[in-house]
Amino acid sequence: MDDQTLGNVRTYEASTPPPDLGEPELLIERDPEAVAQAAADRIADVLGSSIKDQGRADWATTGGSTPLGIYQRLAVPPLRMRVPWDSVHLWWGDDRYVPRDHPLSNVLVAEEVLLAASARGGLSGWGESGIDVDIGRDPGVDIPAANVHPFPCGEAIGEGYGPDWCALSYAARIRQLPIEKGWPVFDLVLLGVGPDGHILSVFPDSPALASTEWALAIPAPSHVEPHVARVTLNPAILEVARSIIVVAHGSTKADIIGAIFGEQRDPRRWPAQLARRRRATWLLDEAAASRVGKA
């Protein structure tokens, strides 16, 4: 592959064909509920296996609407009991540049559903026992606070440091992970797919696609909501991730999923094609998969 480096940005010749990434496992489930259950089962298996093999599991999760149903299933028996959660380190693939308690934050849904921080922190219910009396639910999984690693958006906003500092700070924090081919290795990366084919906060023609930085600040997109600045990991982490799970459901995703699995490979146009690769599992419902093989 012909390439050249300009500062921290690698540029590729336009005629260079994309590398052969192989093909993922493609599983089609009946509906969004079945997709969430299958994803939760897979996540529990991957985390448990990683902990058994190496004593810990590093999971880069996602945000938006994708993880809600998955978190709900992981947070209750039997899956809550299948994973030694105190050996899990939870990271984020991307986030909106807002405080972690903001409704647009990718962290908020994890704290409210997967971790149920209010119950364990004594903000409602019994606190120490972990039963949330106010809303009548169990407390979620017991990942230690020291193992929860969100982008430091709140700190960056509060101190006026800006999104670039936030991304650089996160890149420094993930240096505790193993490194292969110059990239941090996550045991599991969970992804959703945007309406334009983006993954993480890597949009079509994003500068992140040619960057060598581990994490980047992304300007607020104008073509998809929400229109707020982002911070994201570099999609090159998928090259070395030990397991990738991609989740999509609903008829509104059918056309873009069909394009992603079409004959043309162009990750600049459809960044989600970077996750169309070996070591990845795509979990789709019947509606989202309806255009696969027809694009």
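The above is record 1. Record 2 follows with the same two-line structure.
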Amino acid sequence: MGSKSDWDTMRHADETLTEFGIAHECRVMSAHRTPKLAADFSATAADRGVEVIIAGCRRCGPILRASWLHTR
């Protein structure tokens, strides 16, 4: 999520994954305010066993582009 205010929307993904017993984590990181954090998260995702990243933002897609650019 780009900010905590996105939680009202993104919580549905969290609830669904929990319901199905799928291990996951929920993180807030901004491609604008913390671009290195967002890039590092995506770049190291595969090494941490992450298979899918569900990213959300309100009006624009910088976090989505940052995730896409740094994944394998």
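The CA atoms of residues 2 and 30 lie 5 Å apart.
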